[in-house]
Amino acid sequence: MKKIILSIFSLVILSCSSDNDEPIKEISVKLKFTQNWDGTIIERSDLENTEFTNKTGSKLTISRLRYLISRVSLVNGASDTTKFDSYKLVDINKPDNLTLALPEKISEGSYKLLFTFGFIDKDNISSAYTDLNSVDWNVPDMMGGGYHFMQLDGQYKDTLGIKNPYNFHAVRAYNSEKDSIFDTSISIETGSILLKNNATIEIKMNAAGWFKSPNDWNLNEKSVDLMGDFEAQKDISENGKSGVFSLGTITQ
Amino acid sequence: MGCSSKEEIENVYTPVQVSLKIPEIFQQKLIAPIIPTNNPLTEEGIALGKKLFFDPILSKDNTQSCASCHNPKKAFTNNTRFSEGVDGKLGTRNSMPLFNLAWNFDERFMWDGKDFSIEHQAFSPVRNPIEMHSNWKNVAEKLQEHTEYPTLFQQAFGTSKIDSTHVTKAIAQFERTLISGSSKFDQYLLGKTELTPEELNGFNVFMDEARGDCFHCHGSDNNPLWTDNQFHNNGLDETFNDLGLGAVTGDPNDNGKFKSPSLRNLAFTAPYMHDGRFTTLDEVINHYSEGLKQSLTIDPLMKKVNQGGVQLSDKDKADLKTFLLSLSDNNFINNPDFQQ
């Protein structure tokens, strides 16, 4: 009831003020996803070419980087939330497809942007999304089912300087012995964004962040077969919560 | 009378549009196939494409058709390592099987991805000197002088003037109808049959990241194409005689990468790999288990390359093979719509 009263009150205020002010604009919003390694931009041309160093000192290259964003929403100053049902599979190998146009317009104003890395359990339903099935984004049921959250693949040099593959795949954590799952998706909330015109909001993903804080990741110890590793998935998720995603430039 | 009849046909004949017969399992799991707006499927176009596919008129000396290297009974490949062209010269790649092409969402065809779209791919064999070794001018002239083709093109495309564009459009229409979605495993997914314990274990080996880990490149129960249609270096060689995708893109990082073939119909499509080096499925499985070779562009998904491979047990190898064979589709190779 309080909410209804508040909404009516807001409407009255807005109606009154509209006599004197500019009409409230409806604007379109796009999210643009960029990737970096502790601030150095990662582009398609860096794949298999550029060598990065992670927190524990391993030198590595990236061959493949895909990740899933879902449950995008914008919350205005009155805590009204506009939810967008779409999800986005970001693939750095497809540079023409790194934006997500939010399907509905919103009123100009100040917002917080919220989104989820991966799928929350409720959304993470095996076989439910034909477009994701079609690009092999599934997780086998024997490893908890649903979908990948991220595929970060490449080569790292071990302590002898020998190249080894790594498959840093983030999925929902699954304990096969107990047949239990643990939601490792990550809710991300940005700071306040003032949107006055059609806008493109940059979402930055720091790939180096997956390998540090709070769990400094030693690829010499764990580099492959991570999907079925319950503890590894929890560690990946914890690292993802500490500043991997951040707000970048807003163009409007 | 002849002229007016032709004019009448040109004015009134409208090809009958058709939709692909999409297998139930594809409808459940996959997005819609790709049908280009400038080449919709029609009864007349498909029939014409089929006739062209099986007609040696496309080759220089009228001895080879598309079907010479793409035999329906072999899931539209043949059983030789390399195919012999009209001049007796051998190619350098194994003939690719043809099915479910409309679900190649990136539309990059051939082992090295050099052709974008089925229509574009169909241009190549006619003029390739080690295949049909003809040229499109001659082919168009032969077809134009043929007793039946001008009318068939008229019916399919509204023009009796034959050119390479319409020939390849017709062949592409026929090729899009080559759909394989009725294997034993498809029936299992639909709840219509049971798998043997060996097949089930083989499927688990396929899907288990810690054993076969085949699903990252070769589809799954949720992607029944059984390929990602992407390009990978799967550890065949330390150095490359054939650059594969790298020769197309010019990027050294793509050297030695070839398209993942579908694992459907393996019972009919030996030999295996882009160069047909493996005669049997056992050899293929042994390659991934113990035979991987390190190279500059090895795919990271070949994660145990430094140990030679994923080191499957004999039991898992045998069961994996049994599962793979459950993806073969006898209804496809015997479909009367696809026979000459």
General description of the model:
The complex is a heterodimer of chains A (252) and B (340). Chain A has helices at residues 2-17, 130-134, 230-240, and strands at 26-27, 29-37, 40-42, 52-53, 59-76, 81-84, 88-91, 99-101, 106-107, 109-117, 150-157, 163-170, 173-175, 180-182, 186-195, 199-206, 245-251. By secondary structure, chain A is mainly beta. Chain A has one domain (25-251). Residues 1-19 of chain A have low confidence and may be disordered. By secondary structure, chain B is mostly helical. Chain B has helices at residues 2-12, 24-29, 43-53, 66-69, 118-127, 136-145, 149-157, 164-176, 184-189, 197-207, 215-218, 245-249, 281-290, 314-325, 330-333; strands at 108-109, 115-116, 231-232, 258-259. In chain B, strands 1-2 form a two-stranded antiparallel ribbon. A two-stranded antiparallel ribbon of chain B has the order 3-4. The longest helix of chain B is centred in the middle third of the chain and has 13 residues, at 164-176. Chain B is globular. The two termini of chain B are 34 Å apart. Classes of the chains: A mainly beta (252), B mainly alpha (340). The A-B interface holds A 47-49, 63-64, 126-127, 130-131, 133-136, 138, 140-143, 153-155, 162-167, 223-225, 227-228 and B 28-31, 103, 105, 204, 207-210, 213, 215-217, 219-223, 225, 228, 253, 294, 297-306.
Give keywords.
heterodimer, A: 252 residues, mainly beta, globular, B: 340 residues, mainly alpha, 2 domains, two-stranded antiparallel sheet, two-stranded antiparallel ribbon, 2% strand, heme (chain B), Cyt_c-like_dom (chain B), heme binding (chain B), Di-haem_cyt_c_peroxidsae (chain B), Cytochrome c peroxidase (chain B)
Q: Short description, anyone?
A:
Chain A: Residues 28-223 form the Copper-binding protein MbnP-like domain. The complex is a heterodimer of chains A (252) and B (340). With 252 residues, chain A is mostly beta strands.
